[in-house]
């Protein structure tokens, strides 16, 4: 990843993503969610961001966020499938 960042490939390649994108992020993740989101937004303007407190890099398996994570994901996917 560092090599791709240094060469400018990342995050520029994300500009080719045109579908809806949801970023679900734990507040204790070592990669600061708001900073990552802000660095991606110029390339993925349709990016939506949700943050979950009291969890790290894997909110889908962490006790404090699992249920909320899955509900948020289900809800967002259902919204995307509506005509």
Can you describe what's shown?
The chain is α+β, with helices and mostly antiparallel strands. It has a single domain, classed as Rossmann fold. The chain is about 40% helix and about 15% strand. A two-stranded parallel sheet has the order 1-2. The chain is flat, with a radius of gyration of 14 Å. The chain starts with a helix and ends with a helix. The mean pLDDT is about 95.
Structural class: alpha+beta
H-E order: HHEHEH
CATH topology, what is it called? Rossmann fold
* Arithmetic mean pLDDT: 93
Q: Specify the CATH homologous superfamily.
A: Alpha/Beta hydrolase fold, catalytic domain
Instruction: Tell me the span between the first and last alpha carbons.
Output: 37 Å
CATH first level: which class?
Alpha Beta
Q: What Rg do the Cα atoms give? A: 14 Å
Give the percentage of residues in beta strands.
5-15%
- CATH architectural group: 3-Layer(aba) Sandwich
Q: Widest sheet: strand order?
A: 1-2
* Overall geometric form: flat
Total individual domains:
1
Question: What is the count of DSSP helices, taking H or I runs of 4+ residues?
Answer: 4
Unreliable stretches (pLDDT < 50, length at least 5) are none
State the helicity in percent bands.
40-55%
Q: Can you give me a brief rundown of this structure?
A:
The protein has 83 residues and is α+β, with helices and mostly antiparallel strands.
